[in-house]
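User: ok so my PI wants both of these folded by tonight, can you help

Assistant: No problem, let's get them done. Here's the first:
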Amino acid sequence: MADEVTIRVVRSFKEIPSTEWGELTGASSSAPGYNPFTSYAFLSSVEESGSATAETGWIGHHLLLEEEGRLIGAIPCYLKSHSQGEYVFDHGWADAFHRAGGRYYPKLQATIPFTPATGPRLLVRHGEDVARVQGLLAQGLQQVARELGTSSAHVTFLLQGELPALTDAGFLHRTDQQFHFINRGYANHEAFLAELSSSKRKNLRKERRNALENGLSIDWLTGSDLTEEIWDQFFRFYIDTGSRKWGRPYLTRQFYSLVGERMADDILLVMAKRNGRYVAGAINFVGADALYGRHWGCIEDHPFLHFEVCYHQAIDFALHKGLARVEAGAQGEHKLARGYEPVTTHSAHYLTHPGLRRAVADYLEHERREVAHMGELLGEHTPFRKGERQPREGEEFDG
């Protein structure tokens, strides 16, 4: 680390002025490149709500890169005692290292808690030399990992453009697969459907009609619509569905109140109503050029309603707002039939133990080939008319 540049670690966002953080990330969805999950509003809310704290195994270890006392870069980062809530799975690495007599936890995790969405992780102040600051941040993350004596440092769901700084510093490259809707200038949902094969187009139209049978209707709620009463209803959906899927949902009720207060205009709730009350809903966050679907819940089961609320309505909103894409979360090949395309995601991993590093490097070499092969296979099964809307070679989101 150059003499005039220092890395400082802080445990809480309360130690970081929100205005300085905003210089790194932008303040709202109107700012170019704005990602809602790296915003001060989101990250401070996850912390203050008790969702990501020492008690839940997420100890803030945020890296601040300062030059002559001025913040020029940062990494949102956590010292973790487990691998829950990350969506890039390293449990096998931890188990193997433990069997070999090593201690995998705690580890450093540069990520957004509970959020499998691509976005910047090596944050650079506007006007700074991006490559220089990213390189210093990568070195700083290594330095902190060594000083703490951790087994590893992980940067997950980063932008592809951030990879060179990390791989040059000795991080290993990992890939995975998600499914995103890509807006290629469609005027509306019907224009998008027109690009599909006739059988797929017919199936999706039928699915959307069937989803809203039994007297169901859809509301979009954002901004001042997000009252405490609405959050109470949505949290009930989240708890009911999350408890069945994960055992214990990650986010607290207070989290929703805080983001509703701090970033309501960057939130979209898609809510399904029947007989005058809401029975299901999905939360989405709005970035400068993307809609990010996060989680959904319901208190009544209706055929196809999940697809309508989470995927079709997200496409409708993105087209209405002129957004470039919809990221609908981790996994889910069922998204493919609904117009979402396979996209490669990236992470980077620094392992301090030479033996563990060699074993993981070999594993990742094979895994990258498998992910690429699977992406090619999935790309052949999109619902678009053959030869017209297949993903181009190398086409993927890199911010």
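One down. Here's the second:
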Amino acid sequence: MSSFDHKVVDGFIRAMERNGVGLAAQSNAYDKLKSILLDAHRLGLFEDNPLLGVRPPQYDPKRAVIPSPAQLGSVRIAGDDTFLLVADLMSGCGIRNGEAAAVNINNIVAADVYRITEQVNQSTKTYDRLKHRKAGEYRDVPLPARTKRTIEWYANKYGAANGYLLRHPKHPSIPFQPYLLQSQWQRLKRRGALDIPEGMVIYSLRHFFASNCLRHNIPITDVAEWMGHNSIDITFKIYRHLMPGSIGTAAKLLDTGLAP
């Protein structure tokens, strides 16, 4: 720990930049290092703040393009059955497309709870641990009745292998690959089969989940946990525009408690 000073921290950030690490990953790594070093400073291990003068990574996500309910409806029926299943999982449960590729009917652990235990790693093309999680860790997310019906309908129609619903259409020995979703999305766009706004991508189906939660006053802390964000700061930066009236609403609610 005694080797750390602001030059070491700054060099760490510059190294991430040189190695092409994404800004979101840079921000997450810096936040973790910052937490450790500030604790050490408070404990007296550092006489001077080792972060003093360091310019942190500037991560500011673009405003998410979110489909309307009508647009989501058109997306659901635009592609094949696999596309419908994934669209319902991403928009209904907020899961990533790699996690949707690993959908398993055995992960319905309650009538209204789906347990996300793994994802398909796009590099290795195999099942892998969740992003920001250790092997064996999972997260539970709300399972709307509509999404549950879609999972069960797909399982009844196509069957399941060890609970897994999706496999690669040309290579059944390997899991379904997330890039196949993107390929179908692009084909549907070129065909004009999708009624989508400019800037909307397949990941926008996950944004719909967050929007739906916040529109119904579900706490952003819960939304961050369900979406698997490493930090609530990420959730807030992406979706803060969906809460424009939160301060005004709070002021009104607090006023009722202050009234004589």
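The longest strand covers residues 113-116. The radius of gyration is 22 Å. Good luck tonight!
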